[in-house]
Amino acid sequence: MRAAFARGGAGIGSVEMRHVPVPDPGPGEALVRITAATLNYRDLIMLKGLLPGLTKAPDYVPLSCAAGVVAATGDGVTRVKVGDRVSPLLAQGWIDGPPDPRRMLGASLDGVARPLAVFDAESLLPIPDTLTDQEAATLPCAGLTAYNALFDDQALSSGPLRPGHWVLVQGTGGVAIAALQWAKAVGARVAILSGSDEKLARTAALGADLTINRHATPDWAPAVRRRLGHGIDIVVDVLGAGSLDAAARVLTENGTIAAIGMLDGPFNWGRQSHEGRRIRAVTLGDRARHAAMLAFAARHDVHSIVDAVYDLEQLPDALRHLESGRFFGKIGIQIKEQGERP
Ligand SMILES: NC(=O)c1ccc[n+]([C@@H]2O[C@H](COP(=O)([O-])OP(=O)(O)OC[C@H]3O[C@@H](n4cnc5c(N)ncnc54)[C@H](OP(=O)(O)O)[C@@H]3O)[C@@H](O)[C@H]2O)c1
């Protein structure tokens, strides 16, 4: 089969396709025929070495989010069977306790930019019939992180997200649009910041209640408060360092900043209790939360936004599209080559 490989820190230019043998599933593993994958900003972090030391050396298969069909199972596998539609956990083996940094797809472990891959069978989740493979492939990183930010009731001082609560979302990338869609599904209200009026119009069509162009209104926190007459219950913060002060200023007394991203530089955790506001680090989610998210997507018939789809062989073009920021929601990869395995 032809699989993509890259070198951590060596950039998009290091991505190349290579012929490699199809792996066999060992005990407790399943071979999955991957049909769809999606890109995340995380893939650029790995390729550019923005957070060094996370990728397998000397090279690794990039991308972390996929959907496909079980093609074979190893000894002792009971969780899945041949023919099941599944999605792998990005954090392989994260069943309970903390995630293992040595088992991250598309980083410390080879990822999903290939037609066939072996995964730990216990780390596979069945895909609901309401979701296409391409939609399901948007969820293991961006969808799950957004879901975790909004619905981890124990970590939210304002309690479970409910109608009337306000969520603030930054940008219109994968995490942001997933958060918008999850929040609207439960009847919460959403304020969204973007650098593009055209993209803001698309968020309004998805139900965004307040749209603000961050270029036209760089001091957005007081503008949001003025427009609403109150603060925000959950800030889904994908910007990091550059937005902490504004996020703290826009929050209600009881609100929470879900610290997720570093589009504007990593968070300064030395300031965790900034102005007494609650800041919570959100990283993906374990298998139970992933399953809860898939059930939620099915129950509310939520369909992720995939703005453009590339073939696997065009992965460098797809990554440059991601890098440009000129997309809305997600960029997908379709994997048509089925590998040599029968
Ligand atoms: N902790 C975790 O487990 C976890 C999981 C997922 C993601 N993340 C992190 O979350 C962040 C977002 O990831 P993603 O995959 O959703 O990204 P993405 O899809 O690449 O989103 C990019 C969008 O964010 C907006 N944006 C980019 N730079 C910005 C800036 N400096 N200021 C304001 N807005 C900016 C732009 O939207 P507009 O054009 O609309 O302005 C851009 O299109 C990344 O830092 C990623 O590493 C962390």
Protein architecture, described:
By secondary structure, this protein is α/β, with parallel strands linked by helices. It has 2 domains: 2-138 and 305-334, Medium-chain alcohol dehydrogenases, catalytic domain (Quinone Oxidoreductase, Chain A, domain 1), CATH 3.90.180.10; 144-281, NAD(P)-binding Rossmann-like Domain (Rossmann fold), CATH 3.40.50. Helices cover 25% and strands 25% of the residues. It is built from 9 helices and 15 strands. The strands form 3 sheets. Strands 3, 4, 5, 6, 7, 14 and 15 form a 7-stranded mixed β-sheet that branches. A 6-stranded parallel β-sheet has the order 10-9-8-11-12-13, with helices on both faces. Strand 8 (166-170), helix 4 (174-185) and strand 9 (189-194) form a beta-alpha-beta unit. Bound molecules: NADP nicotinamide-adenine-dinucleotide phosphate. NADP nicotinamide-adenine-dinucleotide phosphate binds at residues 40-42, 45, 141-142, 145, 170-176, 194-196, 199, 214, 238-239, 260-264, 282-284, 322, 325.
